[in-house]
Amino acid sequence: MADQNNQNLSSTERIKQSSDSLRGTLAESVANEITGSIAEDDQALVRFHGMYLQDDRDRREERAAKKLERLYSFMIRLRLTGGYISPAQWVALHHIAGDHSTGTIKITTRQTIQLHGVLKSHVKPTLKAFNEAALTTIATCGDINRNVCCTAHPAASPLHEEIFGLANDIAEMLLPKTNAYYEIWLEGEKIADKQLEEDPLYQDRYMPRKFKIGIAIPPANDVDILTNDVGLIAIVKKGVIVGYNICVGGGMSTTHGNPDHYARLASPLAFTTPENIMKAVYEVLTIQRDYGNRSDRKLARLKYTVDRLGLPWWREELERRCGFKLEDPKPFEFTSRRDNYGWEQNHKGLWYYTLFVENGRVLDIPELKMKQALLEIAQSEKAAFRFTTNQNLIIADIKPEDKDFVAGILEQYGLIAHTERATKLRGNAMACVALNTCALALAEAQRYMPSLLDKVEGLLEKHSLQNEELIMRMTGCPNGCARPYAAEIGFVGTAYGRYNLHFGGDRLGLRLNKIYKESLDEAQILSELDAAFAAFKEERSAGETFGDFSYRKYIQPAVTA
Ligand code: SRM
Ligand code: SF4
């Protein structure tokens, strides 16, 4: 019996099951003008609709002193499979961000967009405006399949369109069947016939926890494929995708001081053909739905179900549910994980400009009017927009005759100089949102990382290492939203101003790093990095990356001791 481990269901399981297909009392909560918040159970349900209730953590003390409730608002996340948005949609997004949120358009580490600071009274107008632009937020959060990521850059491979299509098909297949989103936010009709809402995949319990899928075309591993619950790696022979390696059980989150909660890279489980891949992905979800832990949410991700039941069991069960045999995973090779900044042309002659967006924050500041420049490009309808999982933006699908026009706007607003100015370190770096909106942050991340980078750049120059392609990532807590455990140098917040320093991840995303030193302040971080860079410069072998060197010098001896 699949659910025998799940006698004591977590409170979230009960909320889901009694929610009337994700409705709960959301409509009443949203209509209640007395508070900026919503009822507690609805806070869990609203996530399935693509939102989180948050409050401005910078203003908690001031509000408490005035005996005011917290300054509540919503973070709203779009669903953009493979990170694509049309020019008309960008124009709409620009105005919606200005009218209803802080105005900053935030590119996330899963190729989509978040708006912050949306007051409760603005949520419906925001979702309606998104809907008018054929944009949706459904199922971007909650215990359900999230935004499906795929290799971002169409110039990376002539096969990009095929995996982008697969990403869209998978995303569609795994949408929830409930009509609640349309009813609550878009004045849709209440469906009287409940049979129309029957959901054979999610039923009334949805997944035990969030579920993430990515697709990569080697040699690019820009999507950090093995950090997904399910990572599909396209196997290409003579220019044709002959099938996909199915990798299962990736996930980043840890808990400080608890070894039972760990980061894990997905394990190659099997290979199957393009004809069978949809069925195989679907059945991985049904297995996790039936066998995932529904008692302890900390152990509910697929990675723990994979480790608990083992890969041979998983393969057998997947074959049984699919009704066809799977093959052994095929060999593949990744050669890079970074975004290639600047101009590139694809096999059809279309042009792409990959723009550096520090920590994914698109906004206008006096010295850089990035948002305005992108609005003008979008208004011209001469380019679309694609987001990368490194929080950057590709100005995309530009016809050769339009390239000069787009380049002119980029030049005029200084965006080409801005991108070229980014050092290799900064260009590869990522930090999560953290303070002031993230309720779980223990330390700063995106607001602090730029100034730390200034100092680390200085250290690299001191050791003549500024041309190294180092991957450095930071998060404000151990949940791992900027995938810090898959970086060569990772910082994970432990308390305000303090971070665990991780060393030893590889450059290509095939080996996780480990804690090197715990809870360091900035002075200690810089001193540790100074010493490690000096040793790297002195002792590295030919062509050795910092990740491999630091693994060999600092991590491996501890692991094998
Ligand atoms: Fe995340 C929760 C932001 C990618 C692992 N994540 C959160 C919340 C919603 C905090 C909360 O639950 O209250 C953060 C909202 C902050 C804010 O104010 O915006 C948040 N996560 C983000 C984003 C925006 C970070 C960014 O700077 O881009 C990313 C949005 C992705 C998207 O568009 O869907 C984001 N989160 C990730 C990733 C990276 C990835 O998916 O490639 C991870 C690690 C991979 C994984 O899932 O294992 C990640 N976020 C988590 C977790 C830990 C989940 C777990 O297994 O325990 C949490 C906490 C939770 O779910 O309980 C979390
Ligand atoms: Fe918030 Fe932690 Fe995710 Fe950063 S890693 S956004 S602090 S949950």
Detailed description of the structure:
This protein is α+β, with helices and mostly antiparallel strands. The protein has two domains: 4-322, 2-Layer Sandwich (Sulfite Reductase Hemoprotein, domain 1), CATH 3.30.413.10; 426-560, Sulfite Reductase Hemoprotein, domain 1. The protein is 34% helix and 18% strand. It has 18 helices and 22 strands. The chain is globular, with a radius of gyration of 23 Å.
In short:
The chain has about 550 residues and is α+β, with helices and mostly antiparallel strands.
Q: Topology, pairings included?
A:
Layout: H1 11-17, H2 26-31, H3 40-45, E1 51-55, H4 60-65, E2 72-77, E3 84-85, H5 87-100, E4 105-107, E5 113-118, H6 120-132, E6 149-150, H7 160-173, H8 180-186, E7 213-216, E8 230-237, E9 240-248, E10 267-272, H9 274-291, H10 302-309, H11 311-322, E11 342-345, E12 351-355, E13 361-362, E14 364-365, E15 368-369, H12 370-380, E16 384-387, E17 393-398, H13 403-412, H14 415-421, H15 424-428, E18 430-431, H16 449-462, E19 472-475, E20 489-495, E21 498-503, E22 514-520, H17 522-539, H18 546-560
Parallel strand pairs: 6-7, 7-8, 18-19, 19-20
Antiparallel strand pairs: 1-2, 2-5, 3-16, 4-5, 4-13, 8-9, 9-10, 11-12, 12-17, 14-15, 16-17, 20-21, 21-22
Bound molecules: siroheme (SRM) and iron/sulfur cluster (SF4).
